[in-house]
Recover the amino acids of this structure.
């Protein structure tokens, strides 16, 4: 093991950036005061941060998966605008006794996820800048940049009554994984089915490829905080109501039932706490699984509205429809927006 | 006092962004999955992070000045490329018992510094995105974006033997301020001269305006880690040696002598520790002041090389020259690169 404190900053940076891909649009990469790149069209930019003890704990930390998650949550936001990723800026604070191998694993996760997005969207996603700092807590702050043709960005504000609502990827699996972690399960010991849910929490895999087949959605959002909260944002931005169809959500709910049984069992026997759980006090496995689907966002599924006559592309499933009104509802009954929000309200 | 935990994330964000300036190049600002902007020319991007206990302590925290510093250190990097600032993405983690008034002060500092840069360079610098998270430690991670005409970026790699070396702004004042803080002084109680040094540490004021008069430098760098280290980077990137002229540095050294006397007095009487001081064991006030000038970077002065026949613009002072070789030297004697580096080497 080699601790970062035994190495210099510039040596560390060159080690972790060894895999950084060549990109034709990078004119000056990491190493000067700032990067110089050549974007085409409009610039799309977003920033998101993962903080130890808030977004993950040392107890279930996997450096490679943390890197994947940090990249995925930012790339999903760029891609949900209909943009092609252009590059990442990665600011990282870690304890100075961190093993360089762990840091390399984190960057390996970043590069893997950036490559996954790049492969799906036929582009290269280099790291173009960033910062490395020491800290008692692990913090990873990423800015993702992308480019999109003029007037081609997918906003939250264009949904129209009569449109159908589609989802690419999943919702609820990461929330189920989080409750399994809170219930004391770990990816190393869980069976394959539950482990897959934990893995979605630790490193979501947005379906970037579905964005190539989406056509022209009237609105689009990266579901990062839960369907109930994120669709409420679309409803507010578009001035519409959105009705989810429970029957169409069954394919998302049913695979979560075994995990829901496990979590309810642990709770019933007074197992590990679930203070941060988003689901309140679900009485049945079906209730709990539904609450994960409605309020669990970290899968980074993409929700899009489009005229219902338009054929949904590969990877998209219909889950509801856009109506007049201003609420998010499930089979006509309003759903409170209770997905994830920092600072509690 | 209203703690953040009593408010919702979206309410907090709208409060702190009240002052966000309108900008013609912002098509979609904060509030969607990502921002959409219209950069002209090449894109310049940089990211830098301030972490509690590493870059500042709660003991001498001033939220407004922290915001100014976080903006300044990023804007300086963008501007040192010859670019006009385009926008900031601000990711922030703070304890959830933070007073909303403190967070508003931090953003006020960010906006003030962005406005100072924008006024100097005749542009508008909005916050276009970011993230707000809770954390036990305060972390502020900023990405600054800028734009520059094709082939007009100032790199570190163009310095030529025979060029003169110029500085805009100062070096050493922030390092003196840091040693004063370590020696137990505080801005509230220090006299005006020492307080000004502490203020440079807490909130540097880069001379953005000097970048309008710089003409076409052969190389440029934001001096953030100290002249000795940052000029070594220019020397390495350009394949040259750089000789500093001690007589030309006198105007930077002399104003620091009173602070150096104070710091040496406190040390001699066994006062507050100086574990993080960058200057080793300076024997005289002149030695200490010189070490601040050579190794102290957080003033964010701009160093530039240019043909010596070229008239330096307003705000630039000559401090040395570019030679053949590969070292940084002072009156011909090599200077070790001992400015700031994370992880100790």
């Amino acid at each position: 093991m080699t601790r970062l404190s035994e190495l210099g900053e510039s040596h560390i940076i060159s080690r972790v950036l060894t895999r950084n891909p060549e990109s034709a649009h990078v004119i000056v990469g990491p190493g000067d005061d700032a990067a110089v790149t050549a974007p085409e069209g409009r610039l799309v930019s977003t920033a998101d941060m993962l903080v130890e003890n808030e977004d993950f704990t040392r107890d279930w930390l996997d450096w490679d998966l943390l890197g994947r998650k940090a990249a995925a949550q930012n790339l999903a936001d760029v891609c949900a605008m209909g943009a092609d990723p252009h590059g990442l800026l990665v600011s990282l604070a870690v304890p100075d006794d961190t093993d360089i191998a762990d840091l390399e694993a984190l960057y390996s996760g970043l590069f893997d996820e950036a490559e996954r997005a790049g492969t799906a969207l036929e582009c290269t996603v280099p790291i173009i800048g960033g910062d490395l700092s020491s800290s008692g807590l692990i913090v990873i702050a990423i800015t993702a940049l992308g480019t999109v043709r003029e007037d081609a960005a997918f906003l939250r504000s264009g949904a129209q009554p009569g449109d159908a609502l589609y989802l690419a990827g999943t919702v609820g699996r990461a929330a189920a994984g989080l409750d399994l972690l809170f219930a004391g399960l770990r990816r190393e010991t869980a069976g394959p089915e539950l482990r897959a849910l934990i893995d979605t929490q630790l490193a979501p895999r947005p379906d970037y490829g579905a964005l190539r087949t989406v056509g022209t959605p009237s609105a689009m959002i990266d579901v990062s905080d839960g369907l109930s909260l994120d669709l409420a944002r679309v409803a507010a931005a578009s001035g519409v109501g959105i009705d989810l169809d429970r029957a169409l959500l069954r394919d998302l709910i049913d695979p979560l039932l075994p995990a829901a049984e496990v979590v309810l069992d642990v709770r019933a026997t007074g197992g590990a706490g679930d203070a941060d759980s988003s689901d309140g006090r679900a009485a049945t496995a079906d209730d709990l699984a539904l609450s994960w689907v409605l309020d669990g966002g970290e899968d980074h599924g993409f929700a899009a509205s489009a005229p219902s006559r338009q054929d949904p592309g590969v990877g998209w499933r219909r889950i509801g429809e856009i109506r007049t009104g201003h609420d998010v509802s499930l089979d006509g009954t309003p759903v409170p927006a209770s997905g994830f929000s920092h600072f509690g309200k």
Observations:
- Chain A has two domains: 4-148, 163-334.
